[in-house]
Amino acid sequence: MSENYVAPNQQRYLRACMVCSIVMTLARFRDEGCPNCEEFLHLQGSPDQIESCTSQVFEGLISLANPGRSWVAKWQRLDGYVKGVYATKVSGQLPDDVRSAIEEEYRIQYIPRDGSVTEAD
Amino acid sequence: MEASLDAEKQAEILRERYGKRAPARGLGDSAVVPRRLLLPSVEDPSIWAVRCKEGKEREVVFSIMRRVEERLGTKNEVPIISAFERGGPNSVMKGYIYVEAQRQNDIMIALDGVLNVYPRTKMILVEIKDMPDLLRVTKTPNLEPGAWVRLRKPAKHAGDLAQVIDVTENGLEARVRFIPRLDYGVRDEPLLSADGKRKRPGMPGPRPPQRLFSEAEARKRHPRNIHGNPQTNTWSYMGEDFENGFQVKDIKIQQLDVKDVNPTLEEVTKFASGAEDGTENLDLKALAASLKDGVTSVAYLPGDIIEVYEGEQRGVIGKATNVQGDIVTLQVTEGELKGQSIEVPNKGLRKKFRPGDHVKVIGASKYRDEVGMVVKIHNDQVTLLTDQTNNEITVFSKDLREAADIGGQGSLGQYSLLDLVQLDPTTVGCIVKVDRESMVVLDQNGDTRQVVPSQITNRLPKRRTAVAADRTGLEIRLDDVVREYGGQQRQGKIIHIHRSFVFLHSHESNENAGVFVTRASNVNTIAAKGGRINNQSSGPDLTSMNPALKRNPTGQNVQAPRTFGPDRSIGKTVTVRRGGYKGLLGIVKDATDSHCRVELHTKAKIITVPKADLAFKDQITGKVIDVNSGRGGFGSRGRGGFGGGSGEWSGGNRTPMATGGGERTPAWGSKTSSARTPAWSRDSGVSGSRTPAWGDGSRTVNPYDGSRTSYGGATSYGGATSYGGGSRTPAWSSSAKTPAHDGFGHGSKTPAYGGSDAWGSKTPAYGVSAPTPGASGNDSWGYTPGASGGSHPYDAPTPGAGLGAPTPAALSAPTPGAYSAPTPAAVSAPTPGAWQGGWGADTAPTPAVGAPTPGASGGYYGAPTPAAYGAPETPAASGPRYADED
Question: What does pTM read for this prediction?
Fold first, then answer.
């Protein structure tokens, strides 16, 4: 697992993936893509994709050390994801084409991370 | 075979297609479990809230992540399961990190050594039912094109209204248009000079006004920087884009204010008018939407008369009794439902006013704070006539409220009503009326003119020490009541003094807010604030009546500070009477005319003290404030006289004192109490320290007290002032007294003397003395312990003399000191006795005083709170003379 740590001076360049809400620097998205969603987002090496599928506006950072065990992860639906830093809320809309691709082709249920879907507790 | 091959191939294909999807990953589950099934249970790890440094929450979260990774696989693996933060500049949860772990101890171990987080301070365990709330997320509303926002970021335009044209797909940026603030290069020079490195901090300061873009202007200044397309009216100037006169820019959503925009009608109309080609830019729906959001913020107060104008209960009018959130409970006042209580949501309500109601504008309209009377009502628009300017203005009823006060703004910019302002180098005036943009000023010649703030040079602050001389030559200060001599004989209180002009305020007249102006030499004092005795006419008379004065021809010398040889006060033992070293004993080591250097008895220190603050302690008794350096001997003389006198005032010692007094008198005589500690003459204010009542009159006893100023110059009967300005012990009218006592010329009895600075006549003062505890204000009290009750030794009577009859009025209670009008009666009495005490050696309560050493006076009559005296007796005792006289 590569370094998830981001120095404070680099924290300006953080972006959050709109699908899985993982938070990484722009550079890392460019180099490695999204560790959870690369299959259907193809962020690696594509600044445009990154620009449209990740957002700079997010809040509530979660440092997930043990996704399998964590209730927080379960609640946020991060329990299948890798260790790392995630965001509780990512503002922004996934482009429609990407969204439909996800849902139809890959049959992944997309849940928006911006708080728009309020589920009954 | 083929089938199997096919199957294999199929499998291959399928695997290829779908194999990538690690099924365990993320959203592999086709059915997403609803959240309600994911609620925390007891088996789940718990969450603790750990204090951390505000603003550093994110850093801490990352640090934790790093630490987890570093120690992964080692035997020091970090035992916590996750950690999150919800901080932000406006979050309630800032300053905390939430850590998920099995045991609290795990957290301690894991966070040990991590910066900016404090696991040792008490960690708060989050209850299971609260856990989902920690992670609750609300959606920030999306921006729609046409919506109104306010700019935050380009500093020049902070707060300006802008309209959203478009929003980027990811919802991060919005293209907005707003009215530019261009100065077309007028201000470019300063930018080049010093601002090289600085990020132009001064820019927002003087911002250019909002003006639509005009290419003609731009071309004039910077023909090179502009290019564009005349047809579509889009231009690019200095790197900024302009369309139809508006500036168009892509701004991040974070740099905009989306909530509570409340676009005012003027701003919005500017946008509408901006369209040159006549297309209606004003999206009424968007406007209505944003206005409606603003409307809901109207708060109805219980007691408002409200009308329902929407819904089935339309037309119902009632009075609000209770407002809870959005629901208002209304008590119906008219119609069929009268008497009933109904509840209506905020939305459909409107405040109801009737023509003739007195209302105040409280809403966001530009007429905020205007007060006026309702003249017309139309739906929810109300027309009112303003109080101040009698203008008609129309506002929404939601912006109004019943007003009890007359009000209106009393200030315009930095100027407020009744301020003294400078109109031009030679003219000053007083503001008598304040309008929205202008005001009416009454200048020193009595003419009124309407000015705008820019025509005023500056405001003149009130100089409390301003003094002028009235017609008779008496001093007049602020807050004195005077009457014009000629003309209309108007009477008023002085609010401003400027050179030879006084501005007066009278409650009787309504013209010009009751303010009028006249020359200082044209007024007669009616009442001086604080009971300052301005009646100096009696002063000189007293001086001549003052036997003590007459007696002592050498008294004249006292005027001129004689300094024969070394200063007489050197080597004398003194006590400090004022200041930080008050009460300390010392010896005068060196002296100048005004100050002495005193070596303190207790500390190895030499301090410089003004002579006025010292009390020369004679071996015998009494302290006398030695103001005049020349008085070498007087201490002794006076003292002697008093010393013995204090005790034996009854004794004939007085005489010596008299002389002493005589000496003093000169000092006393000076109205201005120059000799006296100037403070003494101060009005009440100063007297305060004196023990108001004490000072006057009674003190006189201490002839020494040249400083009695209170006496002398005692205009200040300071305490006396309480008398209402010189109305010292009315009864006293010192005159009566004096004769009796006069020996000392206490004339300063002050009350009567009112300012009789001439203590000489103390006796009158005695009357004063006694009374006016307030009168005493005359500083002298303090000092003249010897003064035993003012009657100073001379009279022996001092006893009651001053004391006794504690200013009947004055003393009563009001701590004499409290010049506060020691209600002449107030002096209840003890004072006389009191004085005794004070007088230092007065041991024997100087006659009359008898016992009641007011005690208070013991000292220097420190504010002989008459109460102190408790012992009413003296009054009776001493009261003698004065009492009778009263």
Answer: 0.42
Q: Backbone dihedral region of B7: left (phi > 0), alpha (psi from -120 to 50 degrees) or beta?
A: alpha
Query: Helix, strand, coil % (nearest 5) of chain A?
Result: 30, 20, 50
CA–CA separation, A85 and B88 (whole Å):
17
Please count the residue pairs, one from chain A and one from chain B, whose beta carbons lie less than 8 angstroms apart.
166
> B38 to chain A: nearest residue by CA?
A75
Query: What's the CA gap between B115 and B59, in Å, rounded?
Result: 9
> pLDDT tens-digit profile of B375-406?
888 777 788 888 777 788 888 777 777 776 55
CA-wise closest residue to B832 among B819, B847, B815: B847
Low-confidence winner among B4-8, B191-195, B408-412, B437-441 (lowest mean pLDDT): B191-195
What six digits make up the tokens of B356?
A: 């003739």
Q: Which amino acid is at B743?
A: G
Q: Tell me the one-letter amino acid at B773.
A: P
Q: Please list, in sequence order, all residues whose beta carbon lies within 8 angstroms of the beta carbon of residue B523, skipping any fewer than 6 positions away.
A: B470, B471, B476, B482, B483, B484, B485, B502, B504
8 Å CB contact of A85 and B100: no
Distance of alpha carbon B397 from alpha carbon B378, whole angstroms: 9
Q: Does B55 touch chain A (CB under 8 A)?
A: no
Tokens 């440094």, located at residue: B53
The tokens of A30 are what?
A: 């460019």
The burial of A64, by beta-carbon neighbours within 10 Å (0-12 exposed, 13-18 middle, 19 or more buried), is given as buried
B365 pLDDT higher than 80: no
d(CA B316, CA B310): 10
Contact B126, B46 (CB under 8 A): yes
Contact B748, B787 (CB under 8 A): no
Cα distance between residue B738 and residue B548, in whole Å: 12
DSSP state of A22: B
Q: What is the Cα–Cα distance from A48 to A41, expressed in whole angstroms?
A: 11
Residue in B closest to A52 by C-alpha: B170
Alpha carbon distance B381, B386 (integer Å): 15
- Count of positions (residues) in chain A: 121
Spacing of C-alpha B390 from chain mean position: 32
Distance CA B595, CA B614 (A): 9
Q: Which of residues 229-288 of B touch A (CB under 8 A)?
A: 253-254
What does chain B come to in residues?
A: 886
Residues 6+ apart with CB under 8 A from B70: none
Q: Read off the pLDDT of residues A45-81 as tens digits, 9 standing for 90 and up.
A: 888 888 888 988 888 899 999 898 899 999 988 888 9
Q: What single-letter amino acid sits at B98?
A: Y
